[in-house]
C-alpha cells in the first residue's frame, strides 16, 4: 500500500490554504505593505478617526510611493507594473489598517492615475504620472455630483470651448483627496459628449473645501470640488475618452481594489473577535469555549475566506485580461456586504467593548457603510447582475 501523504497542519489564519496560490513575489508584496501599515498607520489611526483628520497625508503619500503602492498595477512612468493580484493584496492590507488609507491609494492609482494612463496624451502622462507614482503629487477624481450620484449621465458640470481654451464650471461631491490634490481628473458634459479634463487645482476659479461632520471614513480627506469658469488649455482634455465608458472603466478598476480591501476590514474585525473570545471570561471560562460564540466565529471565517478566494479568482482573471465589469460587480456586492456582517458579528462578540476605539471593530463597521455606497451602491450592482442574468435592463 502507498502511504498517505502527510497533510499540512490546519492554519487558523489561512484555513483554505489560499497562501499556496501565491508565489514568492506575491507574498513579498503583501508582507511589505502589511509591515508598513502596522508600523505607520495602526498606532495612530484610532486617534485620527476620533479627531476626524488624516494628518501628514502628504508624507503618507510619499511613503506609499516609495512602497510602489500608487498606480501599482500600471506600467511605465514610474509605476510598479505589479500584477492585479499583488495590487489586490496591497489593498487588503491597507484596508485592514483603515478604509481611509486604502481609499487614498485607490483614488490616486485606480481613478486619477488610471484615467491619465489609459486615456491621456503622452504629454499628460509624462507630466503627471511619475510624480503621482512617487507620491509627490496627490490626485483626485471628480465624477459624483451633489444631485447625481448613481446617474452620472445626468451630470451638470459643463465644459465649453472659448477660442482655443476650455471653460469648466460645476460642482462635484464626496471627492476623496480633493482638498490636498494638486491635480483633479474632472468629468463634464461637452457638445461632444462627456469628456475628462486634467485640471491643476491651482487654476483660478477652482476650490476644494473639505467636507466635515462625517461619521464614516473619518481618517480620510473628503471634499467638494467647485469649478467657477475654470479656464483650461485645449490640451487639458483626455483625448482617449468620449462618453461614459471612460469614467465607468475607471470605476471598475477601483471597484476591483474594493473587492480585496473589504476583506481586509473584515479580517481585522475577525482577528479582534478571535483574540477577544480566547481571553474574555464569562461564567468561569473564555467565551470562545461556548458553542454560540464558536458558531459565530466559524460563520465569519467561512465568509471571510470565501471572499478572499473570490477576490483572488477575479485578480487572476484581470491578469489574464478576462475580467468583465459584471464580475467586478459580483465581487463588490458580495464582499462588502459580507464584510459588514462580519464586522457586526464581531461587535456582538466584543460586547460593549465592540464600540470602543480601543478595538478596530466599530471603526471598520462605520467605514464600510461608505464603502458599501461608493463606486456603485448595492442596488446598482444588483441591477448590473440582474441585467447580465436576464438580458433585461431595469435601470430605466
Automatic annotation (TrEMBL):
Pfam families in UniProt: Acyl-CoA_dh_1, Acyl-CoA_dh_M, Acyl-CoA_dh_N
**The keyword Kinase appears for this protein:** no
Sorted alphabetically, the keyword list is:
FAD, Flavoprotein, Oxidoreductase, Transit peptide
For this protein, the record's InterPro entries field holds: Acyl-CoA_Oxase/DH_mid-dom, Acyl-CoA_Oxase/DH_mid-dom_sf, AcylCo_DH-like_C, AcylCo_DH/oxidase_C, AcylCoA_DH/ox_N, AcylCoA_DH/ox_N_sf, AcylCoA_DH/oxidase_NM_dom_sf, Glutaryl-CoA_DH_mitochondrial
Nuclease among keywords:
no
Domain Acyl-CoA dehydrogenase/oxidase N-terminal, residue spans:
25-136
Show where the Acyl-CoA dehydrogenase/oxidase C-terminal domain sits. 244-389
User: What cofactor is this protein dependent on?
Assistant: FAD
Q: Where is the Acyl-CoA oxidase/dehydrogenase middle domain?
A: 140-230
GO biological process, alphabetically ordered = fatty acid beta-oxidation using acyl-CoA dehydrogenase; fatty-acyl-CoA biosynthetic process
Q: Which terms in the Gene Ontology molecular function aspect does this entry carry?
A: fatty-acyl-CoA binding; flavin adenine dinucleotide binding; glutaryl-CoA dehydrogenase activity
Note the Gene3D superfamilies from the entry: Acyl-CoA dehydrogenase/oxidase, N-terminal domain (1.10.540.10), Butyryl-CoA Dehydrogenase, subunit A, domain 2 (2.40.110.10), Butyryl-CoA Dehydrogenase, subunit A, domain 3 (1.20.140.10)
Q: Which family does it belong to?
A: Belongs to the acyl-CoA dehydrogenase family.
Listed name of the protein = Acyl-CoA dehydrogenase
Q: Which organism is it from?
A: Streptomyces acidicola
